[in-house]
Every structure is written in structure tokens, then in C-alpha cells.
Amino acid sequence: MTILLEKKYIPLADYFSGATNPSIKLTFSEIEQIMGQNLPNAAYLNKSWWKKTKAPAKHFHAWVDAGYFVSDVEPDRFVLFERVDLSNGNASGQDEEDQDILLIRTAEHGDARSLAALQKTVESESEFMLYAKDERTQSTQKVRKQIIEWKQSGHSTIIIAILNGQHVGYLMIMGNDAKRAAHRATIDLGLQKDAQGKGIAKSLLEKAEAWSKEKGINRLELAVVEENEPARKLYEKAGFESEGIRQKSMMINGNPHNEIYLAKFLD
Questions:
Q1: Is residue 97 part of a domain?
Q2: To the nearest whole percent, how much of the chain has pLDDT over 70?
């Protein structure tokens, strides 16, 4: 990107850079989920904010540099972006099939509300998470505090997956303060059922590895319930290896279950 965007618009630019759809309709809420921050008041009050394409404004480069322009705005409801056909300078045709748009990024404090809701959804859909349905008490304030504290720590973070403007998955990386354990981190991955089978978990793991390497972390570890075969296959395919079994470490519906320890060394 030739124009230096404000930091908060970079995720929006990343989102559009990976898009090929002839048109993209996003609600204001979805745009803010992509950004991880609130839009300015002007975006809610004035259609002209979205139509600007000249300096000193810069925010429009988030979509214009990816070949999109704003064709319609309903304040506080949605924005319609259309892709320019570079061959003739007009809006591209609508006969192309829409493709999923996936954005993977680290969480910002503005993601707290959506992340808290996502965790609740994931835990209600899975039989193998540590917390059962409605068991965790997770407030927006608590999640926001966690995001901020982890970012400040430098060894822990939360990576989120945004599919078509919606938060659908997360991966937590929990590092260590102790110098003797600073090279390792524990990970915890959650993904909504309707977003599974799209390669999102694999993308989250790849992002986690890249982030960990930047922080000097070279060992990632986790525990997975022995009967959770899809998760085991996912991690094993990603290069994680079993290091042992924790016997009867989880009680699910009153029945004991073993957990398998898995770990991967990052080269």
C-alpha cells in the first residue's frame, strides 16, 4: 500500500486485499469487527465520509487500493462496496460467484464484546472444551482487560478469525513470564461449527506459529480430549506430536476422559 493508513484501518485494508467478490455488503457492526475498533462519528453521520477519495482523507485507501468503491450507504446500517473492472473502469459484473473472505489478525481491545460472545457460542457447541455450556462467566470488561494485559506482556495474545465480517474463531497463545519457560507457550483453539471445514483452523495455527517465532517462542503445546478425533487429526497434520496421556483429567457428563498432550517445536 502506497499510502500510510491509520493503524486502525489496516485490518480493513487487509480484508479487502484478499477479496475478489464483485460486491461486498458489510454492516457497520461487521466493519468494526474487522477493524477491532469503532468507526469515527463522521462515518455514522455522513454518507460523504464513505464517498471521499481525496486528501487529506486517507481511510478510503483501505478499499480503493484493493479496487473497490462505495456504491451505496445506509447510515448506521450497511455499506455496499463494488469492485472496479480494471479493463473498462466500471463496476464489475454480478455474475461471479461470491467467495468467502477470511481475515486472521491479533485481537484488539475493541474485539472484546464479539470475542466474549464467540467463546460462549463455541463452548455451547462443543463437547470437549474445558468449560461446558453457560458455565463460564465472561464479561466484555474481563475479556477487554485480558486482551490489553496479554498484549502488554509480549508473550501472550489472542488471534481471531473473521469470516465475511463475522468473528468465527480464535486461538489463544499463553506464554510464560519465567525465563526458563519463556521459550514455550500453551495454545487453545475454538471455532464455530458453521465455520468448520473451511481451512480456518489451519490458518489460525499458521498465524500462531508466525507470531510465536517473532516472540522467540519455539515450542507450542496443548492438551486435547482423547475422543476428540477431528482435533487430534488437525494438530497431528500441522506437525504436533503426542507426548503422553493425562489419565481421567476431564469429567464430561459425569464420565472420566483422558487428555493427550501434544507439542510442536518451531524451526
A1: no
A2: 94
